[in-house]
Amino acid sequence: MALQTARPPILRPAATRAPAVIRVRGLVVGFEARTVLDGLDLDVRQGEVLGFVGPSGSGKSVLTRAVLGLLPKQAGTIEVFGLDLDALTIEGRRAVERRWGVLFQFGALFSSLTVKQNVQMPMREHLDLSPGLMEDLARLKIEMVGLKPEVADLYPSELSGGMIKRAALARALSLDPEILFLDEPTSGLDPIGAAEFDELIATLQKTLGLTVFMVTHDLDSLHAICDRVAALGDKRILAAGTMDEMLSADHPWLRAYFHGKRGRAAVGVA
Amino acid sequence: MAEAPSFAVDWQGEDALIVRLTGAWTAAGGRLVEEEAGTIAREALGARRVVVELGGIERLDTLGAWVLERMRHTLDDRGVATDLRNAKPEQRILLDEVAYRYIQPSPPTKRSSPMDAVVSLGRVISGASRDLATGTGFLGEIVAAFIRVIAHPSRFRMTTLVHQIDHIALRGLPIIALISFLVGMIVTQQGIFQLQRFGATPFAVNLAGILVLRELGVLLTSIMVAGRSGSAFTAEIGSMKMREEIDALRVMGLDPIEVLVVPRMIALIIALPLLTFLADIAALFGAGVVSLLYGGISPETFLIRVQGAISLSTFLVGIIKAPFMALVIGVIACVEGLAVQGSAESLGRQVTASVVKAIFMVIVVDGFFAIFFAAIRY
Fold first, then answer.
1. Chain A from 156 to 175: CB within 8 A of any B CB
2. Which CATH superfamily is domain B6-100 in?
3. With CB atoms counted within 10 Å of each terminal CB, which end of chain B scores lower, N or C?
4. ipTM > 0.90?
């Protein structure tokens, strides 16, 4: 907990002063007898890209799912946009959900709908738009994530892994969210595809002014686009800070992670 | 909550116009944003130069940026020079991005015409004839694989065969016997009611005996097997296809038809006649029970009447059809299973298609047999 005290990130001074859009305090999540997260504190500040690392099974997905409300928590508070999620009415909760977008690890595109219909789905449910405008907007989003216009009418089963990620990103962005959750966005992509995807996220983040919460194992992604990195371990945040701070941290797992062979290679490239 | 999108118009002389936008130009007020932009466009058509002041906009998102950019394009095309000015830096980035990605507004969607119905009917018919061709081709492949297995008996998968027979016959027996029992009862009951009027109640036994042995036993069994085992075959083979397991078999030098299809086909061909026989007995038993309850026919009389009404040939007419039904069900189930594409959607679609086609074909084949037996007076 002491390690989590926010040190100022160097990359983007604006982010330091920015208020926290996600504020997690004393979060406890567990399954039956096993506690996965115990008294976890975390701040995600407005406009930053927070990369989230940790050993497999350390509860990265559990944390994401708990923040999104997909998993019940035993204790603690989660505030998003300054609103305590537990204190919200159902309508209030829906309003918050409209302001975030989620990219699931395997895309979670609806397989019975085309890419365009997938992107339009949230608009159809939440917005009052004319059919023509909805059509244009969906095609614009598909264009923005770097997919060709023809892809709009394909079904998810006809897409490659990289295209699925992009299409899912277009859907996550369909309501112009303020927070974007990414679960392993570059997993399963080739290094060039992964680098392009990183760049895409960075561009969209600047264009749309997004706050990005990204679970990743990709050290290159961490270097390329993250303003801050938080490491999860021992059921809480081991350390959070800029990449440079993480590199100088002396926790054994962090040393192994960032100074291993792959870690050094990534630093060299960046 | 931010204010609704709105604008103020300021004419600068005859042909120049300044439009000042205020409020939130976001997706939340989608329809309103579009209407306001439309109003501005109509208003501005009278001008030669339009300056749109964005300084007063509280919030702008992709939708707002797109609508403004589209408005600018439309006006430019009509010869009205339009300028979007004084955007905040972050709004500028968004506008530039949208302008860079500018896509032509979508054309109105095509209306459906009566011809579409004819086209889709044509598709269905050509699809059906294609199915017949694939089915026949596949049957040939199975026979070829079967001959290969006979040539190398060691390659035959006994375990799979036994497992499949267990699933098709043993586990399917209770439900098939129950259904046949009930249908036997129902047919006999109606027979008794209708024939009573002519004082011919005992003939209900003849009716039930012949109907059950010639048609109902094998038909009910085939339909149940198509529903139970045909769907299972399609689902098993389909999910293996989906997860590239079929390809894995191929690259190991194994023939998927030999490994997966042949044992299933043989199991079906063995199991279906057995099940038909048991279904016949269950249906006759049902007929006997109802004859006693509704017709007052004692079990002894019932058996004597049944013996008088049917001969071995009546039984054989039914049972000879069973292996053919098995072939039809098996071929359709395996073809549909192998036709599964990447998605779980497609798996569900193929399983449904497999069951529907198999039941349809079972009834069609039964009809052909009826014509055939009538022609040879059997």
1. 156-158, 173, 175
2. STAS domain (3.30.750.24)
3. N
4. no
